[in-house]
Amino acid sequence: MISSQGQKTDSIIPAPEEFFLNTNLYREFILPDDDSTLEGLKNFRGTVDAFCPGCEDRSVFKRHFPSGVGTPRPPNINARTATREHAPKTDSHFIIELVCTRNENHKMWFCFMVRNSKISKIGQFPSLADLTRHSIEKYRKTLGDEHYTELARAVGLNAHGIGIGSFVYLRRIFERLIEQAHREACQDAKWDELDFAQKPMSEKIKQLSAFLPKTLVENANMYLILSKGIHELSENECGKHFEIIKEGIELILDEMIEKAEREKKTKRITNEVARITGKLRKE
Ligand SMILES: [Zn+2]
C-alpha cells in the first residue's frame, strides 16, 4: 500500500521487542481493526534483552510504569460514514519506558505515533545506531578502521530511515571483500587481469571463489540486491531489506574471523608440538 506521502506502508506490525530494537524510525505499519496489537504494544509487560550503553554490556530491560503519555484526539472522519471494516484508530502518541534490571538509572524510551490508522516509531533513546553499534565492534579488526566506520555509518543511516544511503556503504564493504580476494588471486602468474576486469560481478565472484568466504560465494546475489537497492528501490524497500543484508555481511565477516582464529590456533599448536618433540628428543 502507498501512503499519501508516497511511502510504502507495511501491513505486518513487528513484535514489540523487534519494534523497539530493530525497526527504523518513521516506518509505517497498518493497524489491524482488532485493537489487540496496539493495546499489546501500549501495555507491553515483557522483558527485552538488549545492549545497555550504561552497563556497556547486554542486560535485561523491563517495562517501567507509569510512563505512557498520549494525546488522544477525536477521529478525523465523519462517524456516520465509518464502517466496522474501516473503523479509524484515534490519532495519538505514547511512550514506552524500559529500565535496566541491573541499574534502574539506565533507561530506554520509545515514542510511537498512531495516525490515520497506522503506527510508526517516531523517536527513541538510546538511538538504534547506539544499540546496535556494539554488535559490529567485533568486526573492526577484520574490516580495518575505514571500512568499519562505513559499516557503522550504514547502521546509523538505516536507523534514521535513510535506506538507499545505507546500501551504498554496505555495497562498498562487499566490494572491498571482493577486491581483497582479487589482490590475492592476481599473485598467480597465470592470472588474466584483462579477462577478469570485463566480467560482471557474479562471474568475478565465481572466479574468486577459492579466495572468498563460502558464505559470500553462496550468497553472491547480495550484490545484486545492493545494486538494485541503490539504483531502483525506494528508501522504504531498502530499509526493509537492510537487516538481512547486514546480517549476510556479518556472517561473511564471522567466517573470516573464524578462519583467522583457526589458522592462528593451528600455527600455535604446530609450533608447540615441534618444540615439545624437539625437547623430548634431546632428553
Ligand atoms: Zn544497564
SSE order and pairing:
Layout: H1 16-22, E1 29-30, H2 36-42, E2 47-52, E3 57-63, E4 92-100, E5 107-115, E6 118-125, H3 128-136, H4 140-159, H5 163-185, H6 193-197, H7 201-207, H8 214-218, H9 221-231, H10 235-282
Antiparallel strand pairs: 1-6, 2-3, 3-4, 4-5, 5-6
Bound molecules: zinc ion.
Task: Quickly describe the structure.
By secondary structure, this protein is α+β, with helices and mostly antiparallel strands. Helices cover 50% and strands 14% of the residues.
Descriptive account of the structure:
Helix 4 (140-159) packs antiparallel against helix 5 (163-185) and helix 5 (163-185) packs across helix 9. The termini are far apart. By secondary structure, the protein is of the alpha+beta class. Strands 1-6-5-4-3-2 form a 6-stranded antiparallel beta sheet. 50% of the residues lie in helices and 14% in strands. The chain is flat, with a radius of gyration of 25 Å. The chain folds into 2 domains: 16-126; 133-267.
Mean pLDDT: 86
Biggest sheet layout? 6 strands, antiparallel
Distance between the termini: 80 Å
Bound molecules: zinc ion
Number of domains: 2
What labels would you give this structure?
10 helices; disordered N terminus; 6 strands; 283 residues; 14% strand; alpha+beta; binds zinc ion; 2 domains
